[in-house]
Design a protein that fits this description.
The chain is 63% helix and 15% strand. 14% of the residues are buried. It is built from 13 helices and 5 strands. The protein is an alpha+beta fold.
């Protein structure tokens, strides 16, 4: 008898603590029998649904709190929980307040078992209105950021294209309006020191203004700086002798670079004009 009395007091104490915790929770704690009729409702049902706890006791959870058009789907969910005898968490459903307003809620539901038999259900429900408003706000902000990001990408792309076009124009103008005259001066120059300065200036000017070299370097990262220089001069139509003079190399060395370029470009065994191929890459 004493052991039973002690057990009863322990159960009563645990029940009291549960009810105290449930009464302080902002989320609604509830319990039903096997038929879905309420046997317990925490006080927060008043804020959530507009019902006082005593108004719900004995009433059916589906018939009272679920909109008519959602009741059949809710019955199927309850039946699945009953048959599976396993809890369901994070169920997002619609509920109906006392005044008829429909609100979004989230439900955690678990079956109460006596052996293998479901004798009731316990659950916890919370209002999702504030969360859904936040989700919609975040979704809106995400769309805005995506649009801004796409606009920035477009601007960057357009800017890159404009810059590349600007560089091409500079390059073409130098090729047409500057380099030919410097070459004529170089051809007629009798002063060896001045001729050397002109040759160096021409080579440096080609290196600085070469859009082709930048393009080829991006497409074929395996080319060395010297190979890029030779490739650019070949594309301009320079002869082996002219390239040798501009880069201060022997004609044999230039031929060696031409051969390496054909290998790296994959046209070694093809009847492909090297200059034409290089021009197609630019």
């Amino acid at each position: 008898m004493k052991a039973k009395a002690s057990t009863d007091r322990t159960l009563a104490s645990e029940t009291a603590r549960f009810h105290e915790l449930a009464s302080q929770s902002l989320e609604w704690v509830w319990e039903t029998d096997a038929q879905g009729d309420f046997t317990y409702c925490s006080p927060s049902c008043s804020a959530l649904y507009g019902y006082e706890p005593l108004e719900l006791l004995g009433r059916n959870i589906i018939e009272t709190l679920i909109p008519p058009e959602d009741r059949e789907a809710q019955r199927k969910i309850i039946e699945e929980i009953r048959l599976g005898r396993k809890p369901r968490k994070g169920l997002r459903r619609r509920a109906m307040r006392k005044n008829g307003a429909v609100i979004p809620i989230e439900i955690h539901c678990l079956p109460v078992l006596a052996g293998n038999t479901v004798v009731g259900f316990r659950g916890l429900s919370r209002d999702l209105r504030a969360i859904q408003e936040l989700e919609l706000h975040l979704e809106h902000k995400t769309r805005e950021l995506t649009e801004v990001n796409n606009a920035l990408r477009l601007l960057l792309h357009q800017g890159a294209e404009a810059w590349a076009e600007h560089e091409r124009r500079i390059h073409d103008n130098l090729q047409r309006l500057v380099l030919p005259y410097l070459e004529k001066i170089q051809e007629r120059c009798k002063d060896q020191e001045l001729e050397l300065y002109l040759r160096v200036a021409l080579a440096n000017l080609e290196r600085i203004t070469s859009i082709f070299s930048l393009t080829l370097s991006a497409r074929l990262g395996g080319l060395t700086p010297r190979e890029l220089e030779v490739a650019e001069l070949i594309r301009q139509g320079r002869s082996t002798k002219q390239i040798a003079a501009i880069l201060d190399l022997s004609s044999r060395t230039v031929e060696f670079y031409r051969d390496k370029l054909r290998v790296k470009l994959g046209i070694k065994s093809k009847k492909t004009n090297l200059r034409s191929y290089l021009s197609s890459l630019a």
